[in-house]
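Worked example 2:
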Amino acid sequence: MIRTVSIVPTILSDNKQEYREKVETINSFTRRVQIDVTDGVFAPTETLDITNVWWPKNWEADLHLMVARPSDHIDTILKLSPSLCIFHAETNEDLLPIFETLKNAGIKVGVALLPSTYPGNVKPYIDAADHVLIFAGQLGVQGGQADLMQMEKIALVRNMKPEVEIGWDGGANINNVRALAHADLDVINVGSAISNAPNPAEAFQELVAEIDKNGVVL
C-alpha cells in the first residue's frame, strides 16, 4: 500500500530579502515548509543565521539544521518553536539530550542521514526520533542530482521503526518524484524544482499531481 506522501518545499537562502521573497511565494500555495540552515562548518556554505529565520504563524515549519554544534542553537530553536527540528547524525555531539530538551518543549525531532551513514549505526537516534531524513543531495546546495541509491535506506529505517515519518531531501524533481513516492516515504522535500520554476505554485501542483498517479513508475 502506498502511503500518503507530502511534497514539502524547502527554503535555502543567505540573505534576508531573498528569504522574505521565498516565504511570501511559498505561503501562497502550501503551509508545510522545510527551512534549511547551514553554518559554513558542517556544510561548506553558510545560509542566513538561524536568529534571522522566521515564518508565518500558520505554517507547519520544519527546521533542518546542517550545523556542527546543534547545542549552540537550542535557545533559538525553543524561541522559534518549529513543528519539527532535524539534526544530522554525523555531528560530533550526542543528539539524545538535545532531542529530550526539544521534545519536552513540544517540538518533534528528526535525524538526518548523510549518504555514507548506515541506519543501523545510528539506531539510538532513529529510536528516539519522530522523523528520519534520508539525505541524498549536497549539503547546503539546491539543484543537485539525487542519489537514488539512498532509497535502499528507506526499508531499513521502516523495519527499524515502522511508525516513524521518513523524509527525502536531495534532487527531487518531476522526473523522479513518482518513484520516490512509491518507495514508502512520507515526505519529499523539494528545493530548486519549485523555487527556480517560472511559476513555483504551478510546479508544486504538478509535483503533487505526479505522485498521485497510478500505474508503472518509469
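Strands lie at 6-11, 32-38, 60-66, 84-88, 108-113, 131-135, 165-169, 187-190. The mean pLDDT is 94.
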